Amino acid sequence: MGKTAFLFPGQGAQFAGMGADFCEKYEESALVYDSASKAVDLDVRALCFEKNDLLDLTEYTQIAMVATEIALLKAVLSKGIRADLAAGLSLGEYGALSACGVMKDEDVFRIVRKRGIYMQNAYPEGGGMTAVLGMDGDKVAEICEGVAKESGKVVAVANYNCPGQIVITGEKEAVDAAAEKLTEAGAKRCIPLKVSGPFHSALLKEASEKLKRELDAVGINDPVMPYVTNVTADYISDKTPIKELLARQIYSPVRWQQSIERMAADGVDTFIEIGPGKTLTGFMKKIDPSLKAYHIGSVQELEKYLEDKDA
């Protein structure tokens, strides 16, 4: 019998209206939005459900995404769906922490709200991120290191998403210079991303230190099931390193492909992405098409999953 993992997406998958159908149908989900609103003193329902200009600003995106992921998770659990492991991409790691019982949801909401503000303000201008398509991760890292050394500016790998999709991050000038070199070296395309900062780069060390102070004030538990951390792609099954890893995650590369490969090698053959968008399900197809990948982002998808599971 293969194992199942819950996966939670990161920033970028948000859209106005996300989670509204769950809020209407499941009391468990509605309570999550109320709890999030109370914890961070914001109308999180309005932020998620109504068209607005705040949803794409990092300091608001992060709380909206995580509240929605946890709201959907509660509905999934209410249907008796269980997993053996969890993982989340970048911000999504907080969805995984909730699934593993590491922190109280109220604390998750407060930490994520602060995380969004610190990341938004860490490097207000001159940062950028670019997706590099069709090139091996080691080669991308090597070229970024060369550009950083030559220019004295920050540019590095932010995400190892899946084969042929690596994201780079840093000072805009250096990111653009690296993109040029990567194209010359054979990358199929380099696509600048619409983001508000050079996430997962050394430029966010200050935000990391601030977050660490917030984390130090929060109680955490040993995970009830292991999760895979972005920073090392290793299993975390005891609470000792968690705060340190969450602080480091802000400026370290996200080893997503390595995380999925690690779980697959250990017998996980079913992955359920819980949250808006189908980003992670898309990555799964490129990482290993033989793995079963499901997406639950709407009530309809949850019902279809239950039908398929029992068929």
Structural key phrases:
311 residues; alpha/beta; Alpha-Beta Plaits; 2 domains; four-stranded antiparallel β-sheet; globular
Task: Give an overview of the whole structure.
The strands form two sheets. Strands 8-7-2-1-9-10 form a six-stranded mixed β-sheet, with helices on both faces. It has a four-stranded antiparallel β-sheet with strand order 4-5-3-6. Strand 9 (268-274), helix 12 (279-287) and strand 10 form a beta-alpha-beta unit. Helix 2 packs across helix 6 (105-122). The protein has two domains: 3-122 and 203-310, Malonyl-Coenzyme A Acyl Carrier Protein, domain 2; 127-196, Malonyl-CoA ACP transacylase, ACP-binding (Alpha-Beta Plaits), CATH 3.30.70.250. It has helices spanning 20-25, 27-40, 44-49, 58-78, 93-99, 105-122, 137-151, 172-184, 205-216, 242-249, 256-265, 279-287, 299-310, and strands at 3-8, 85-88, 127-133, 155-162, 165-171, 189-192, 227-228, 235-236, 268-274, 292-296. With 311 residues, the chain is an alpha/beta fold. The model has no long low-confidence stretch (mean pLDDT 96). 49% of the residues lie in helices and 17% in strands.
Radius of gyration: 19 Å
CATH homologous superfamily label of the largest domain: Malonyl-Coenzyme A Acyl Carrier Protein, domain 2
What gap, in angstroms, lies between the N and C termini?
17 Å
Q: What is the structural class?
A: alpha/beta
Number of domains: 2
Q: Share of helix among residues?
A: 40-55%
Give the low-pLDDT segments: none
CATH topology of the largest domain: Malonyl-Coenzyme A Acyl Carrier Protein, domain 2
How would you sum up the major sheet? 6 strands, mixed
**How confident overall, as mean pLDDT?**
96
The coarse silhouette is globular
Query: What order do the SSEs take from the amino end to the carboxyl end, as H and E?
Result: EHHHHEHHEHEEHEHEEHHEHEH
CATH architecture of the largest domain: 3-Layer(aba) Sandwich
Please give the CATH class of the largest domain: Alpha Beta
Number of strands: 10
Number of helices: 13
DSSP strand (E) fraction?
A: 15-25%
Q: Main sheet: which strands, in order across?
A: 8-7-2-1-9-10
